[in-house]
Amino acid sequence: MRLVVMIPAYNEEETIASVIKKVPRKIQGIDSVQVLVINDGSTDKTVEVAREAGADEIISHKTNFGLGVAFRDGINQALNMGADIVVNIDADGQFDPKDILPLIEPISKEGVDFVAASRFLNKNWEPELPWIKIIGNKFFTNLVNQLTGQKFTDTQCGFRAYSKEAALRLNTFGEFTYTQEVILDLANKGISTKEVPIKVRERKGRSKLVKHWYSYGLSALTIIIRYFRDYRPLSFFGTIGIATLLPGLVVGIWMLFHWIITGRTSPYTSLLYLVVTLVVLGTLFIVLALIADMIGRQRRIQEELIYYQKSLRYANVDREGKIQKENSG
Q1: Number of structural domains the chain divides into
Q2: What angle is formed at CA 83 by the lines to CA 75 and CA 148, rounded to 5 degrees?
Q3: pTM, whole model, 2 decimals?
Q4: CATH number (domain holding residue 32)
């Protein structure tokens, strides 16, 4: 069984060496441990420091594309390296690489496919976070739990482990964040999940991957809205349609009774335009909901095809973790 520890990094020359060196290289039940660094357009010596610290492989972006893109490229490269388990850990030293052991244990011993670290699961210890981050974390965690039916306590923590099955199933599109999108995507596909408690260290300086809490929050909220639109289109567009159609019908019926009783529409004649607009828009949204639901079924079929293509592609990985050429020689 092969473990790949992926580390997205952007200008982390001060801390990345310590993270790489502390990654456990000998784990019972794991045949090999490799460290993959995803350099997201760093302008300092992150790459040189990572290489000297013992990173097995480094992929680099020419510019800073964002944490979501770095994560997505890291997952694909880890599969290309023949990973059976993929662990994602930050490069800033907040997380202890020794916690990789309890993080991968549910995968290697219990058959769980996705394990998330939680900073809030340990009731005897609370992380020292700014109040705005605690409020934001609780808001997004509750929102994600309501959408997925899960009981996560920390949906913002990026320290996570993925089985090969989960990595193959995963499809994300966010550029600046991915933490909520991963849970939404995997939960929607019925992937087994588990949380394990961890402790975090104080961050040295500000996060370089997440520049502002409000931009992060907006990106996270956009991802959740898009998930609701893409995976529950009947509810998403149908709710808008009903919310638009019902007021139009209510006002229209009231005006009809008024006309029957009085024989005229005045002094409410101008409301007729509002009634027609609401009824037409509501009907269009309901029709759109039905069409989007049909497209959503096609999306699920396409994702299954992508999964099988990935499975075939990454099934032919040799011991060095490179894709074999079927007709080589």
Answers
A1: 2
A2: 50
A3: 0.81
A4: 3.90.550.10
Residues 11 and 100 in one domain: yes
Cα distance between residue 60 and residue 42, in whole Å: 8
Judge whether 326 lies within some domain: no
Residues 224 and 237 in one domain: no
Tens place of pLDDT per residue across the chain (329 aa): 899 999 999 999 999 999 999 999 999 989 999 999 999 999 999 999 999 999 999 999 999 998 999 999 999 999 999 999 999 999 999 999 999 999 999 999 999 999 999 988 877 666 667 777 778 888 889 988 988 888 999 988 899 999 999 999 999 887 777 888 999 999 889 899 999 999 887 655 555 555 555 666 787 788 888 888 888 899 999 999 999 999 999 999 998 998 898 888 888 888 889 999 999 999 999 999 999 999 988 888 888 999 888 888 887 765 455 555 444 43
CA gap 227, 269 in Å, rounded: 41
**Tokens 């490269």, located at residue:** 77
